[in-house]
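Predict structure. Chain length: 72.
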Amino acid sequence: MNWMKKVIFVLCLVMALAVVSGCDSDDGSAEKLGKKFDQAMEDAKDKMDDMGDDAKDTYEDMKDKAKEAMDN
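Prediction complete.
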């Protein structure tokens, strides 16, 4: 069982080193592409949220007009 603890410790150490080495401040082309992709996804999400809000507003307006028509 002692060897298993050593193996787990070594694996954790290797993963920690991989994470630290991945935090390089030099942005390569893949990093830049990833940032552009993230921004595009964020923009798309914002537009979808706006469309959802517009659809909800339109629904509410139609519901109000239908209610007015039923009351008259």
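Summary: The chain has a mean pLDDT of 84.
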